[in-house]
Amino acid sequence: MDNTTHLISEKIETIENDNKDQAISICEIMKNNTSDIIQKLEVEIPILFQNYSDLYSRYLHSIQDLFGVCHLAEKQYFDKIHVDQKVLKSFDEYWKFMTNIAESQINLSTNFLKSYVQFRLSFIDSWDEYAHAAMNTYAKMLSRFIQE
pTM of the prediction? Predict the structure, then answer.
């Protein structure tokens, strides 16, 4: 066995011996692992939202470029075929209507998600109050039992 392998083996043995001496608590196990997961989400979610924001910014840029070129083509070709302005106004009204529907759906979804998060926050606060009350009651009953 080379020196590095021997040092690693000794370190692992030391850690294993230290762990044998420590009492394991199910509450600590659950608290630590749950906290690790939530902290990981806390780090990753803002990055995810930023990535989606960047994605939609690129979509917007691409669409603006596309329709900028379209506008040039329209001036060059479509003006020559003399599309009736009434048809274009009707087309514009249709797309404004569709845009309003899409924006309304986005607003509804956003408001629903805001309400959902507020509901969950309220639920967690209520549960937390209940859990503290239950723990206090349990501690009082346990202290009375121990005193007797």
Answer: 0.58
